[in-house]
Protein backbone atom coordinates (compact mmCIF):
# COMPACT_ATOMS: atom_id res chain seq x y z
CA UNK A 1 0.00 0.00 0.00
CA UNK A 2 1.31 3.45 -0.93
CA UNK A 3 2.08 5.98 1.75
CA UNK A 4 1.23 9.52 0.68
CA UNK A 5 2.47 12.51 2.63
CA UNK A 6 0.45 15.71 2.33
CA UNK A 7 2.08 19.00 3.31
CA UNK A 8 -0.28 21.59 4.77
CA UNK A 9 0.75 25.15 5.66
CA UNK A 10 -1.77 27.20 7.63
CA UNK A 11 -0.42 30.27 9.34
CA UNK A 12 -2.58 33.10 10.59
CA UNK A 13 -6.29 32.59 10.04
CA UNK A 14 -5.70 29.81 7.49
CA UNK A 15 -5.81 27.29 10.34
CA UNK A 16 -9.61 27.68 10.16
CA UNK A 17 -9.61 25.60 6.96
CA UNK A 18 -7.88 22.56 8.49
CA UNK A 19 -10.87 20.44 9.55
CA UNK A 20 -12.62 20.69 6.19
CA UNK A 21 -9.36 19.97 4.40
CA UNK A 22 -8.56 16.95 6.57
CA UNK A 23 -12.07 15.45 6.52
CA UNK A 24 -12.54 15.73 2.76
CA UNK A 25 -9.07 14.47 1.84
CA UNK A 26 -9.35 11.59 4.31
CA UNK A 27 -12.70 10.63 2.79
CA UNK A 28 -12.00 11.10 -0.93
CA UNK A 29 -8.30 11.28 -1.78
CA UNK A 30 -6.44 8.11 -2.84
CA UNK A 31 -8.60 5.82 -0.72
CA UNK A 32 -6.41 2.77 -1.37
CA UNK A 33 -3.36 4.46 0.15
CA UNK A 34 -2.31 5.48 3.64
CA UNK A 35 -2.44 9.27 4.06
CA UNK A 36 -0.12 11.17 6.38
CA UNK A 37 -0.61 14.87 7.01
CA UNK A 38 2.33 17.15 7.81
CA UNK A 39 0.86 20.35 9.22
CA UNK A 40 2.88 23.54 9.67
CA UNK A 41 1.28 26.39 11.61
CA UNK A 42 1.92 29.22 14.02
CA UNK A 43 -1.34 28.38 15.85
CA UNK A 44 -2.15 25.72 18.39
CA UNK A 45 -4.47 23.24 16.73
CA UNK A 46 -6.70 20.41 17.87
CA UNK A 47 -6.01 17.10 16.14
CA UNK A 48 -8.18 14.92 18.36
CA UNK A 49 -9.90 12.14 16.40
CA UNK A 50 -7.54 12.74 13.47
CA UNK A 51 -5.02 10.06 12.62
CA UNK A 52 -1.59 10.28 10.99
CA UNK A 53 -1.20 14.00 11.64
CA UNK A 54 2.28 15.34 12.34
CA UNK A 55 2.51 18.93 13.55
CA UNK A 56 5.37 21.42 13.39
CA UNK A 57 5.30 24.97 14.68
CA UNK A 58 6.53 27.59 12.25
CA UNK A 59 6.60 31.35 12.36
CA UNK A 60 4.21 33.32 10.24
CA UNK A 61 6.13 35.51 7.83
CA UNK A 62 5.12 38.60 5.88
CA UNK A 63 3.79 38.18 2.36
CA UNK A 64 5.18 36.86 0.07
CA UNK A 65 7.81 35.05 2.17
CA UNK A 66 5.38 32.57 3.71
CA UNK A 67 4.51 31.20 0.27
CA UNK A 68 7.88 31.80 -1.40
CA UNK A 69 9.69 29.84 1.31
CA UNK A 70 7.33 26.85 1.28
CA UNK A 71 10.08 24.60 -0.09
CA UNK A 72 12.20 25.44 2.95
CA UNK A 73 9.23 24.45 5.13
CA UNK A 74 8.76 21.12 3.33
CA UNK A 75 12.44 20.29 3.65
CA UNK A 76 12.33 20.89 7.40
CA UNK A 77 10.30 17.65 7.56
CA UNK A 78 12.55 15.64 5.25
CA UNK A 79 13.39 13.09 7.94
CA UNK A 80 9.68 12.74 8.86
CA UNK A 81 8.68 11.82 5.29
CA UNK A 82 11.41 9.27 4.59
CA UNK A 83 8.91 6.37 4.56
CA UNK A 84 6.50 8.04 2.14
CA UNK A 85 6.16 6.91 -1.48
CA UNK A 86 4.63 10.19 -2.69
CA UNK A 87 4.45 13.76 -1.43
CA UNK A 88 1.87 16.43 -2.22
CA UNK A 89 1.11 20.00 -1.33
CA UNK A 90 -2.34 21.54 -1.64
CA UNK A 91 -3.33 25.09 -0.72
CA UNK A 92 -4.86 25.15 2.74
CA UNK A 93 -8.26 26.42 1.58
CA UNK A 94 -8.84 23.47 -0.75
CA UNK A 95 -11.28 20.64 -0.17
CA UNK A 96 -11.45 17.28 -1.90
CA UNK A 97 -15.20 17.06 -2.49
CA UNK A 98 -15.15 14.14 -4.93
CA UNK A 99 -13.22 10.88 -5.07
CA UNK A 100 -9.76 11.13 -6.63
CA UNK A 101 -8.24 7.72 -7.23
CA UNK A 102 -4.57 6.83 -7.31
CA UNK A 103 -4.79 6.22 -11.07
CA UNK A 104 -6.05 9.76 -11.57
CA UNK A 105 -3.38 11.64 -9.65
CA UNK A 106 -0.26 9.63 -8.90
CA UNK A 107 2.50 9.97 -11.49
CA UNK A 108 2.68 7.18 -14.05
CA UNK A 109 5.77 5.01 -14.37
CA UNK A 110 7.44 7.44 -16.80
CA UNK A 111 6.61 10.53 -14.73
CA UNK A 112 7.97 11.82 -11.45
CA UNK A 113 5.83 14.89 -10.76
CA UNK A 114 2.21 16.01 -10.63
CA UNK A 115 1.18 19.56 -11.46
CA UNK A 116 -2.11 21.15 -12.48
CA UNK A 117 -2.45 23.49 -15.42
CA UNK A 118 -3.46 26.95 -14.20
CA UNK A 119 -7.12 27.35 -15.26
CA UNK A 120 -6.66 31.06 -15.85
CA UNK A 121 -4.07 30.51 -18.57
CA UNK A 122 -5.25 27.43 -20.47
CA UNK A 123 -5.79 29.29 -23.73
CA UNK A 124 -3.33 32.14 -23.28
CA UNK A 125 -0.56 32.73 -25.82
CA UNK A 126 2.94 32.31 -24.40
CA UNK A 127 3.84 35.99 -24.53
CA UNK A 128 0.88 36.79 -22.23
CA UNK A 129 1.46 34.05 -19.65
CA UNK A 130 2.71 35.61 -16.39
CA UNK A 131 6.11 33.95 -16.32
CA UNK A 132 8.88 35.82 -14.56
CA UNK A 133 10.48 37.90 -17.34
CA UNK A 134 13.31 39.31 -15.21
CA UNK A 135 16.60 37.86 -16.55
CA UNK A 136 18.18 38.44 -13.12
CA UNK A 137 15.73 35.95 -11.52
CA UNK A 138 16.37 32.20 -11.39
CA UNK A 139 12.71 31.72 -12.46
CA UNK A 140 13.27 33.72 -15.66
CA UNK A 141 11.51 32.52 -18.82
CA UNK A 142 11.98 34.64 -21.97
CA UNK A 143 9.02 35.83 -24.03
CA UNK A 144 7.66 33.18 -26.43
CA UNK A 145 9.27 30.43 -24.34
CA UNK A 146 7.77 28.14 -21.75
CA UNK A 147 5.22 25.38 -21.84
CA UNK A 148 2.11 24.62 -19.88
CA UNK A 149 1.74 27.14 -17.06
CA UNK A 150 0.99 25.35 -13.80
CA UNK A 151 -0.71 26.64 -10.67
CA UNK A 152 1.17 26.72 -7.36
CA UNK A 153 -1.86 25.44 -5.43
CA UNK A 154 -1.23 21.76 -6.27
CA UNK A 155 2.09 20.01 -6.64
CA UNK A 156 3.33 16.54 -5.93
CA UNK A 157 5.24 13.55 -7.07
CA UNK A 158 7.45 10.67 -6.12
CA UNK A 159 9.05 11.38 -2.76
CA UNK A 160 12.68 11.57 -3.86
CA UNK A 161 11.92 13.58 -6.99
CA UNK A 162 9.70 15.97 -5.03
CA UNK A 163 12.36 16.55 -2.37
CA UNK A 164 15.02 17.06 -5.05
CA UNK A 165 12.77 19.69 -6.67
CA UNK A 166 12.32 21.39 -3.29
CA UNK A 167 16.10 21.50 -2.76
CA UNK A 168 16.72 23.01 -6.19
CA UNK A 169 13.99 25.64 -5.75
CA UNK A 170 15.16 26.44 -2.21
CA UNK A 171 18.65 27.09 -3.57
CA UNK A 172 17.28 29.22 -6.42
CA UNK A 173 15.18 31.29 -4.03
CA UNK A 174 18.07 31.83 -1.64
CA UNK A 175 20.28 32.94 -4.54
CA UNK A 176 17.58 35.39 -5.69
CA UNK A 177 17.06 36.80 -2.20
CA UNK A 178 20.79 37.51 -1.90
CA UNK A 179 20.41 39.55 -5.11
CA UNK A 180 17.28 41.32 -3.72
CA UNK A 181 15.11 39.54 -6.29
CA UNK A 182 11.77 37.85 -5.70
CA UNK A 183 10.13 35.94 -8.54
CA UNK A 184 7.01 37.57 -10.00
CA UNK A 185 4.55 34.99 -8.63
CA UNK A 186 6.82 33.70 -5.88
CA UNK A 187 6.74 29.88 -5.52
CA UNK A 188 4.49 29.51 -8.59
CA UNK A 189 7.05 31.29 -10.79
CA UNK A 190 9.77 29.05 -9.39
CA UNK A 191 7.79 25.90 -10.20
CA UNK A 192 7.14 27.09 -13.73
Query: Helices and strands: which structural class?
Result: alpha/beta
* Percent helix range: 25-40%
Number of helices: 6
Overall morphology: globular
Distance between the termini: 31 Å
Order of helices and strands: EHEEHHEHEEHH
Stretches with pLDDT under 50, minimum 5 residues: none
Task: Report the C-alpha radius of gyration, rounded.
Answer: 17 Å
The number of E-state strands comes to 6
Strand count, sense and barrel status of the largest sheet are: 6 strands, mixed
Mean pLDDT: 97
Q: What is the topology, as strand order, of the major beta sheet?
A: 3-2-1-4-6-5
What fraction of residues sit in β-strands?
Answer: 15-25%
Concise synopsis of the structure shown:
By secondary structure, the chain is of the alpha/beta class. It is 27% helix and 20% strand.
Report on this model:
- The structure is a single chain.
- The chain has a six-stranded mixed sheet with strand order 3-2-1-4-6-5.
- Helices cover 27% and strands 20% of the residues.
- The radius of gyration is 17 Å and the shape is globular.
- The chain is an alpha/beta fold.
Describe the protein's topology.
Elements: E1 3-9, H1 18-28, E2 34-41, E3 53-57, H2 65-68, H3 70-75, E4 86-90, H4 102-105, E5 113-117, E6 150-158, H5 159-178, H6 186-191
Short key terms for the protein model shown above:
alpha/beta; six-stranded mixed β-sheet; 192 residues
Amino acid sequence: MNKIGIFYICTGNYSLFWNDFYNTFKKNFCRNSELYFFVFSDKEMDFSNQENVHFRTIQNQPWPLITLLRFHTFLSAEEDVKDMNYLFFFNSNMVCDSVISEDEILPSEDEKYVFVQHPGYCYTRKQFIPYDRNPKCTAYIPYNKGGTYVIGAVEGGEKDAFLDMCKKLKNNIEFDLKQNVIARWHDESQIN
